[in-house]
């Protein structure tokens, strides 16, 4: 490789990418990529989380497929258009290589906005100061009339630092699958927040393109202590919360909340009473499917279900096939995704037939 920099010359119809998944799930993201694109050449950058892959499809085709039919476990992907062997260079030379790359990108037009996202793998001491690199790239972009922002940008310049190489690419937020660096979406904890589970529903709302305020009446199965219930109430819904465990005291007297302190199997609800059903419980996958299915009479036709399913053994892809098949008897499964705030689980977005 040229010591300064080398524009990647992939074989016709191939492309290189940095792929990120939740910790311990990158192998499943890699398997999804293999099933989608065929042979995948991969090298680990951060164990169990980040890999660099070569796919047998060009950049446009990969981006088209991943946006129109997203994978479950892949939370972030960045194209690799340039590799800089910074370990063999002076810091100024490495920075100049990236500045030169930016100068070739006709997509970056004056008046547009761009975010510069720099990530670091398992790298200890280095001759390259990442703060200096970020400041230099920001300056180069500003001088070209491009506004550097953190969120809501037209473009993202992604830089991943491995032990010897910088992997660099330019793409839009949707092409990266997220406008957060590495897809690591974060919400700020609020004073008085009942639980961190609220973040999961907030992320689901964003990931599935929903506005919870559009719904009128929600059913929360396994609601205690009330993290999801509290968000639905904030969005203006009337909510029925089912759980034999206690709800948070702050919810006790809410005028739009009905609390049924029972097991879900013991309740009787109105037919087609709700337009939204949510469930976030630590049950086995098939128990969860049966529990939700038994209460679907209360969800009106066209109503939405958002359900978290735990992946409790070592064959998550088979588990996902099984639960999808069962849910599909009653619901249109529109999207399955492992959210950033999921742990050993995925979240499903479904609509009742």
- CATH class of the largest domain equals Alpha Beta
Q: From the 3D coordinates, which CATH architecture of the largest domain would you assign?
A: 2-Layer Sandwich
SSE order:
EEHEEHEEHEHEEEHEHEEEHEHEE
Q: What is the general shape? A: elongated
State the assembly state of the protein chains.
single chain
SSE-based structural type: alpha/beta
Strand content: 25-35%
Radius of gyration: 23 Å
Number of strands: 17
Query: Could you estimate the helical fraction of the residues in percent?
Result: 25-40%
Distance between the termini: 56 Å
Roughly what is the average pLDDT, rounded to an integer? Answer: 93
Strand order, biggest sheet? 13-12-11-14-15-17-16
Helix segment count?
8
* Domain module tally: 2
What can be said about the biggest beta sheet? 7 strands, mixed
The stretches of 5 or more residues where confidence is low (pLDDT under 50) are: 1-9
CATH topology call of the largest domain: VC0802-like
Give the SSE map.
Blueprint lengths: L5 E2 L7 E6 L5 H12 L3 E6 L3 E6 L3 H10 L7 E4 L2 E4 L5 H13 L9 E8 L9 H14 L3 E2 L6 E7 L3 E7 L25 H11 L9 E5 L5 H8 L3 E5 L14 E4 L13 E7 L4 H10 L4 E12 L5 H12 L3 E7 L7 E8 L1
Parallel strand pairs: 7-8, 7-9, 11-12, 11-14, 12-13, 14-15
Antiparallel strand pairs: 1-6, 2-4, 2-5, 3-4, 6-10, 9-10, 15-17, 16-17
